[in-house]
Specification:
Blueprint (H helix, E strand, L loop, with lengths): L4 H4 L49 H22 L12 H16 L3 E2 L14 E6 L5 E9 L2 E2 L6 E3 L6 E5 L1 E3 L25 E5 L23 H10 L4 E5 L27 E4 L1 H11 L6 H10 L5 E2 L6 E8 L3 E10 L9 E7 L22 H22 L10 E7 L2 H4 L1 H8 L8 E7 L9 E5 L7 H12 L2 E5 L8 H6 L4 E5 L18 H20 L21 E2 L2 E3 L9 E6 L4 H5 L6 E5 L2 E2 L3 H9 L6 E8 L2 E8 L1 E2 L5
Helix pairs in contact: 2-7, 2-12, 3-7, 7-12, 10-12
The chain binds zinc ion (ZN).
Zinc ion binds next to loops.
Amino acid sequence: MLLTLRSTLTTLLGAACAVSAIAMAQDSEPAHKKGTIIEGTVNIYDYSPDETGTDPDIAGQLAAIGPVGQQWYQHVMTLSNPYFEGRAPGSDGIAAAANYVEFWMRHAGLEPGFPAKEGESERTTYRQPFELPGAGPKVVDSAVSIGDSALKSGQDYIVLGSSGSASVTAPLAFAGYAIESGRDGYTSFKDDSEDLKGRIAVFFRYEPINQEGVSRWSERRWSEHSAAAPKLEALAKRGAVGVIMVTPPDARDARRGLESTATSRFGDRLTIPAAQLSIEAMDALIQQADPNARTLAEWRQQADEGAVTTVPLKDSVQVTLKAELTTGTISTDNIGGVLRGAGSLADEWVIVGSHYDHVGFGNYGADPRNRGKLHPGADDNASGTAAMLCMTKLMSDWYGSDSAPKDRRSVLFMAFSAEEVGLDGSRHWTEHPTLKQESINAMVNLDMVGRMRNDELVVGGVGSAKGFKDWLRPRFEESGLTIRADLSGRGPSDHASFYSAGIPVLSLFTGVHDVYHKPGDHGWTVNPGGASKVITLAESITKGLASEPKLEFEGKTAGSGQDRGYAKVRLGVSPGYAETGQQGVVVEAVSDGTSAAEAGIKKGDVLLSWNGELLEGAGDMMDHLRKHAPGDKVKIKLRRDGKDIELDVTMKASKPRG
Ligand SMILES: [Zn+2]
């Protein structure tokens, strides 16, 4: 079944990302609808090689998406590979992704994009490093010892990213899978038990498994009961003074070894110390602490059967658990490469950007229930990074060909980091620009271009330069796509940083979907044929921006510093696309526990005004949100079942960083 935009909107306003604030332009025709359904277009949800025959036509499939789509697809599949760990700033995964991006920039013949030091004119490096505040805990000191014998950090144990900074010496208690309530009445805890009080709780990762090491509760991998964050909370709530996680012996999961501190930030930071022990170290320890000297495998079997709840172990076996973590800054890089222009325009610039970071294991910018799970970020934003990389090659080829105009601007291609944290990478660049602002013609942003449906594309920033819409019109028409043109240069992605700096912007975006910021944003769900159409359009626009008369910025610059992608408060509604001519913001969904939910805003409401100011679209609402602090009270007028109602809404904070 074809999923429409309307039914798949899942984003939440206030999260800094590519999706929430795109509203349709009010003064343009809905689109240059050609009314044609292009044969061969695939719906992303059923995109896969034809499996009906014994000999699937792979060659035919690849031919259909064309050479650009082929290359793009390979980039997306690579960048969304688990090896890249969801590309959270500070992780090994994003460091690998940065190397990947730099490799392909060099491969396309781009020169280094940045000077080594701010203010220098010579460009010698592809990296623009910057610091990110408090985005991940780092271990300063740690120890796990049993009596006098100390375990080895990194080999026998690691400190969990959710650990508090504390040191305790206490006996152990076994807590099974630490599942409060699982399938069929399963629980790891008995009511009113004091078993964990003052003890270090030992618990299994995941959930009960069968003899094959596979979940008893889920056909595929693990059920929601396996999530680590609620387990840690349940143990702390029951008085544990420390926690030790261990992988159940023989569980069938690639994550059998020790995590790293960076990848084990499950939920909110605890106040008690938390560690993961290797299976071997825990096996030895639990045998020593158990009066009956049971092995870890035996304990596991009991927990699998639901035959055991919490059990205090020998008081004589005292374990010391010590962890000291800081949430200092972490370093990350924008990646940039330059394609040199020529002739009289060589010192002017076009910027093509895309963010290459994502939310890693979902410890920020994701549904709390998915914390600890890998978020591959194929559409968000391996897709845009891949499109940008494809463009380095296309533009480079064009500049090297006879058909290139004599006078052409230089192009700075950039892959931004830390977009998901709050547009930090692009804002770092605009606050520490490596080019003179007057020399920049425009910035083109590619964020989430991998899931085209019905040949529809949202283009933002169409009103960010004088006459831009008319300039763009023939290119839009030539694309054969249905363009949803949004005049605003704002929006929750990197182009907003450039728009705030007074630079004309254009953002290309194929829409939100049900796995937006979810672990399901996999490489195999994207639409390569659609992406190649986006790239073709972006290429045509960038060629124009590189050679035609310079645009003149139109719009409001930041000034107050409030026009930024990141809002301190969050309303908690998913906005829908307004019908043409319709005023207000249609509420597609309301998230539990948010400002909107508590004020009584419901699905289907149309938000009309904000403290008396008309809301023309979701973009307006973002602007309002950016001006508020948690605790502010706002009067929102809305229409429900044909009646206008006014509600008092108390603004709650958006998800904290890191
Ligand atoms: Zn995102």
